[in-house]
Amino acid sequence: MSGAEEAGGGGPTAGPAGAVPAGVGVGVGVGAGPGAAAGQAAAAALGEAAGPGLPDEAGLAGARQLQLQEAAGDPDAPPKKRLRAAEAAEAAAAAAAAGSGKLEERLYSVLCCTVCLDLPKASVYQCTNGHLMCAGCFIHLLADARLKEEQATCPNCRCEISKSLCCRNLAVEKAVSELPSECGFCLRQFPRSLLERHQKEECQDRVTQCKYKRIGCPWHGPFHELTVHEAACAHPTKTGSELMEILDGMDQSHRKEMQLYNSIFSLLSFEKIGYTEVQFRPYRTDDFITRLYYETPRFTVLNQTWVLKARVNDSERNPNLSCKRTLSFQLLLKSKVTAPLECSFLLLKGPYDDVRISPVIYHFVFTNESNETDYVPLPIIDSVECNKLLAAKNINLRLFLFQIQK
Ligand SMILES: [Zn+2]
Ligand SMILES: [Zn+2]
Ligand SMILES: [Zn+2]
Ligand SMILES: [Zn+2]
């Protein structure tokens, strides 16, 4: 999937790299201060042609990611504004029927996602009969079907849909990228393919942060007010001890993050480490009200036999009715031990997978009497990422086990 997404212009899946540029992107936004005039000129030129001096691809990709996340919302996000979009599409359809309206308005109703009726922001999939679905809706439909234990179908024609039955429609993706789109900040129109750069680097109304953010200034506001704010910003004139206080707070959150990574590094030096790929498969409980849960086959790590179980939304009765999706998991020791077995464990994404999971280390002392952990959250970045896992047939992750020896 990841290879194909390159052609989508931006790509809907952030992947592990997506998390990093977000921080970088903020820095770029703040640093862009002096280039205001150039930005304005380029913005003016945007209407006719692509502005000169495109930023390098890597920078642009990072910017895109941030843009997608912040301004436009994640392209994989489930449909949120059905109503408004539906109205717009209806109006466009009416205009098309009347033979009036601009070409782009008529195209809008032709190229929009048949589920959320929005113009797709990234990849576009089609059912075997050609009905278009944006990546977010497509993945959402697959995840819903999995939760209801049904075959996913096209909402338009009810034909079966799956990752192998549906293919992307590059022509539609490219056509959509040429359609005009409104800047979320200044409300001016730009071709979609140029919008991201405009919102990220050129829009005078884009949200920026004060350059004294590093010493604690919380100001953020439209770019055209930035110079005035920065000239009047109180932070550079704060006394040393005032600044120390602010910096202490900031250090603390950094320290927390460093602690996590340091503890992972020190775990890596343990004598007994094991890791394995685990495959969660969906099952149903045979209760009166059946519930979906996931379980892996037995596997051996550190010479012991284990099983992992997972559940969706903490076994909420109808997880398919909720937009929020979470996964929690439990590690069970299946073999007998002669002495308590103290372990740290960590679940991360599997190889070849692009789901974003933050590392969290859990600890447990396994004994013959107490051989299963509580359900602990699998820290997936958000519901969209969670749907990516649920939409797949099996959930593939990688488990690390560290034996703590006293
Ligand atoms: Zn959609
Ligand atoms: Zn269809
Ligand atoms: Zn703008
Ligand atoms: Zn400031």
Describe the structure.
The chain is α+β, with helices and mostly antiparallel strands and 406 residues long. Helices cover 36% and strands 20% of the residues. It has twelve helices and 16 strands. The chain has helices at residues 2-5, 15-31, 36-45, 57-70, 82-97, 103-111, 135-148, 170-178, 192-202, 226-232, 240-267, 383-391; strands at residues 124-126, 132-134, 167-168, 180-182, 189-191, 207-209, 220-222, 273-284, 292-295, 299-301, 304-312, 327-333, 341-349, 362-366, 376-378, 395-403. Helix 4 (57-70) crosses helix 9 (192-202). The longest helix is centred in the middle third of the chain and has 28 residues, at 240-267. The chain starts with a helix and ends with a strand. 31% of the residues are buried. Bound molecules: zinc ion (4 copies). One zinc ion is lined by residues 127, 129, 131, 154, 156-157, 159.
